[in-house]
Amino acid sequence: MISDINHFHLFSGAGVGAAGMQDARPEIPGLTGRMVCLGGIDVDPAGAADFFGFTGVRCTVRDLFSRQQYVAFHGREPPGGWTEAMPADIRAAAGGCRPHILFLSAPCKGFSGLLSHSRSLTAKYQALNELTLRGMWLAMEAWKDDPVEVILFENVPRIASRGRHFLNQIVQLLRHYGYIARETAHDCGELGGLAQSRKRFLMIARHAEKVPAFIYEPPQRPLRAVGEVLGRMHLPGDLRAGPMHRIPNLSWKTWVRLAFVEAGSDWRSLNRLAVQDGYLQDYILVPEMRRGALGVHSMQDNAGVIAARNYPLNGAFSVADPRFDPSAAWKDGQAYGVRRWDASTGTVAGQQGPGQGAYSVADPRHHGPAKHSNEFRIVRYEAAARAVTGAHGTGQCVADPRTGWPKTAHGNKLAVTAYEDPAKTITGARFGSGGLCVADPRGGPDASKLHGKYHTARWHEHAHAVIAGNANGAFSVADPRPGLARTRGDHYLTAGHYGVAAWDQHVGAVSASACHDNGAWSVADPRVLPGANDKLVCRIIAEDGTWHRPFTTLELAALQSLYDPDDYAEAEEQGAHFQMHGNSDSAHRERIGNAVPKKAARAMAEEIGRAILLSRAGESFQLSSTPIWVRPIATALAVRGGEGA
Predict the structure, then answer these.
(1) Using CA atoms, how far apart are residues 630 and 599, in angstroms rounded to an integer?
(2) Cβ atoms of residues 132 and 155 within 8 Å
(3) What is the largest CA-CA distance in the chain?
(4) CA distances (Å), origin 490, targets 494, 497, 500, 513, 515
(5) Span 434-446, average pLDDT
(6) How does pLDDT run across 30-59, given as a tens digit for each residue?
(7) Scanning 15, 184, 408, 597, which has the fewest C-beta atoms within 10 Å of its C-beta?
(8) What is the pLDDT of residue 284?
């Protein structure tokens, strides 16, 4: 036998929770519940459009503020034609029908930990917080003659502290209308078997006369790994998945920071990098250096001339400033946090930037296997060599322990005689057969005058004195005749050694032995590194071999169980894709972050629907393997007469 269970949503948002409740199928022996959505009401037109897209039911766009709250929040009087919403408007939004389940998810910004305590106390956010109490009053008055069986009030956990006085008033209001209310806490990720941990506050109230049956806690499921969900999706940026799967444009400095964040950690891992004199001691990015590009001055140095084009990329217009405290700048909140591929995420919130939380993932699916697995490989002396190929740079080197010198080499050959000691016997060998070097202390400030070390003589001048040391005098000359000996048959005439190809030209045939010093195998690349604040999409492979990148909007929808890649696999191949209303990624992310996960809503609706069916069948008790819905330190959720269990 089929029995309809109606549900209505106040502050409905995008309707993700409503869609989840529609999927619920509560059952008891002999009776099956069919969830019927009566609609929703919200102030956001884009959210209302999504509500209709996900549920197929109309959502009413209506401001639920009182006039006083409107003025406090917006700082101005409402426009002409604006009227306060009344209980009759709530009944009209439900199509004149009475719901059996009422779900409220009031605005939570004023209660969120992302908002400072001082700002939460301002008139603007206090008016937003008061909307929770007004919304509950409107719902109670709308159906006071025939009360709703079960009411769910969901919000952020911090409402239990920041909104304590509002919750106390709501509980008193519910009791006045005949409800028994319990405050609980749950993890939506465990209720829906999601790949994110989403701790939420939930106040659940049952009408004492209409629902005498217990409402049991939904079964808890283990959290899934991020990669288990994302691994079934197209790679980010793949157009087959639609525009919501595009990679966010981030500043260059953000990409670099993400690349250095350890997987499973956040911005605090950047503090473990070795920084010396304002530079990363163990890493360096080396662009083509021109005109002092990317030059950094020490805090104790003086700067050069300040030019008109004083950008970091075209001169030394940067400073190594030691006065920087990352902890003070980023505070907390796991800024630049990177999730492991095999771990679950935290709560998906409306704030979605990589610098605002752990909204990036260490994605192992980059361009295939790691490079240099064979190229530039050095084979151990006792190991077998790799296959000999035509290319000369693929693992054809050996670590040869045979230096050729006996153990006594440094006692006689290559010996350096102390300045005050007599030299050893002079032999016929030019080098390597005796102590024919001396430790000469006469370096000093005038060494260049004595030896002229590394001096290059002009072509039209005389040379310095010729002395015995082959690196201690002017044994170089600036010869103006570089092309005089270039005739047919000369090896360097046509081979293009150290040749540099122009960016807008083509190159010759690529040979198996192509290297920078045996042909035109270099290019004049005009592309410099981007500026620190330049917005772009990068693929920087981190030290752990994965691509540390932000979640795409579509991936956040998948983590919220709003989007299932398996359901859209066929459609995406045909050019169709999942799309929310509008073109703004930030608006999509805010609505996704504010939503109750679809699978978690379904799990809650099935347990509540089962209790309603039991009450309709005249039963007040059912044996269950799951506990009565409680939080870890709370008493039972639903008991006859409101007494503890």
Answers:
(1) 20
(2) yes
(3) 119
(4) 8, 12, 20, 20, 20
(5) 65
(6) 899 999 999 999 999 999 999 999 999 999
(7) 408
(8) 67
Residue pointed to by tokens 């010759």 = 508
Whether the Cβ atoms of residue 548 and residue 540 lie closer than 8 Å to each other: yes
Please identify which residue in the block is written with the tokens 């966010």: 248
The two tokens of residue 387 are 């296959």
3-state secondary structure 125-183: HHHHHHHHHHHHHHHHHHCCCCCCCEEEEEECCCHHHHCHHHHHHHHHHHHHCCEEEEE
What's residue 452's pLDDT?
A: 57
DSSP letter assigned to residue 251: E
| Per-residue model confidence (pLDDT) at position 483 | 56
Mean pLDDT of 113-126: 73
Instruction: In whole angstroms, give the CA distance from residue 39 to residue 3.
Output: 19
Give the whole-angstrom CA distance, residue 229 versus residue 597.
Answer: 14
Helix (H, G, I), strand (E, B) or coil at 378: strand
Quickly list DSSP for 391-418: STTSS-EEE----S--TTGGGSTT-EE-
Using the Cα atoms of residue 578, residue 580, residue 581 and residue 587 in order, give the sign of their dihedral.
negative
* Domain definitions of the chain by residue range: 2-226+584-642, 247-367+528-551
Nearest to 90 by CA among 125, 115, 108, 63: 63
pLDDT in tens, 378-395: 777 777 777 666 555 455
- Tens of pLDDT, residue by residue over 480-510, are 766 555 666 565 566 677 788 888 888 877 7
pLDDT-above-90 percentage for the chain: 24
* Residue 456 DSSP symbol: E
Per residue, the 3-state secondary structure of 103-140, as one string, reads EECCCCCCCCCCCCHHHHCCHHHHHHHHHHHHHHHHHH
pLDDT of residue 588: 92
Nearest partner of 33 among 645, 637, 628, 613, judged by Cα: 613
**What class is the 2-226+584-642 domain?**
alpha beta
Confidence of residue 413 (pLDDT cuts 50, 70, 90): low
Would you state the structure tokens that stand for residue 26, as one six-digit string? 């509560």
- Per-position b or e across 365-396, b if 16+ CB within 10 A of its CB: ebeeeeeeeeeeeeeeeeeeeeeeeeeeeebb
Both structure tokens of 403: 């230096």
What's CA 405's distance to the chain center, in Å? Answer: 56
Query: What's the 3-state SS for 550-590?
Result: ECCHHHHHHHCCCCCHHHHHHHHHCCCCCCCCCCCHHHHHH
Q: What angle do CA 155, 550, 284 make, to 5 degrees?
A: 140
| Share above pLDDT 70 across residues of the chain, in percent, rounded to a whole number | 75
Cα–Cα distances in angstroms (integers) from residue 298 to residues 253, 271, 326, in the given order: 20, 20, 20
